[in-house]
Amino acid sequence: MNELQTSDNKNPSFEDFKNENGITFWWATDLMTMLGYKDMKSFQKVLDRATKAFVSLNIPHYENIIAEQRVIQNVQMQDFKLSRFACYITVMNGDPKKVEVAEAQAYFAQQTRKFEIFLEGQNEIERLLIREELTEGNKSLASVGRQAGGVGFDYAKFQNAGYLGMYNMPSWQLEKRRGIKKGKLMEYMERTELAANLFRVTQTEERIKNKSVTGQANLEQTHYQVGKEVREIVQKNVGKSPENLIQEKQLSDVS
Predict the structure, then answer these.
(1) Which residues form the domain of 47?
(2) Non-local CB neighbours of 2 within 8 Å, separated by 6+ positions
(3) In terms of C-beta density within 10 A (0-12 exposed, 13-18 middle, 19 or more buried), how is residue 33 classed?
(4) pTM higher than the cut 0.70
């Protein structure tokens, strides 16, 4: 398949067809031609299967397969902007009897490093998604804490209060115990632990709001108490304390 040659070839490569406009994307019509489909009517079935795959994995397909009207050869038609991962999923849902599709699948198989996190199963994907939610949750909790804490609010002490409640130790001690670099705890947490921390963060924010908690000491006490409650939930349901949960390999983003 000429369009998917990777190097030392004068023909355009898959990378040559990418577009940069705030985001990196490939037009579905270009990918359709690469895969040997004659028209969008037949290729739409492949896109539909790719969309179902995103839905089953709980990945926002609207962010990866973006519908857009486009004028091609003076004809307005429906096209789609595909993310790199959407191209991968689409190719894997193509007809392997087509030589172009088979070669495209082989091409993407060679890109294992870029798609590593997606090739190891749904658990890995869920870890990534929960980690992202937790990152946003921490930002939101920090904002609420600063508003309720007022001038001189110490976020580090407030954050560690939650860790003390949940892990019986501050974050730096947990990092040392697990042999993890500073600030990288979430990257090694497995799904259950990430979800537990997300629950701790969201419930602390809700309690601060609902009970109108103010002041550094009261905020720390609230975060500690919620962390302790989450600790008890984990111990009851998992049979282990949070600090003893199994660690996974480090998460990494796909560019």
Answers:
(1) 2-111
(2) 9, 11, 12
(3) middle
(4) no
Q: What is the DSSP string of 15-54?
A: GGG-EESSSEEEEHHHHHHHTT--SHHHHHHHHHHHHHHH
- Region of 107 (left: φ > 0; alpha: ψ -120 to 50; beta: rest) is alpha
Task: Assess whether 24 and 98 both reside in one domain.
Answer: yes
Separation of alpha carbons 40 and 50, rounded Å: 14
Query: 71 has which bridge partners?
Result: 76
Residues 130, 238 within the same domain: yes
Block means of pLDDT (10 residues each) for the chain, 255 residues, are 43 77 88 92 92 83 90 88 90 89 83 55 70 88 95 95 97 96 93 94 95 96 97 95 93 54
Which residues, other chains included, contact 163 with Cβ-Cβ below 8 Å and sequence gap of 6+? 169, 170, 171, 174, 227
Distance CA 255, CA 131 (A): 16
153 and 207 in a common domain: yes
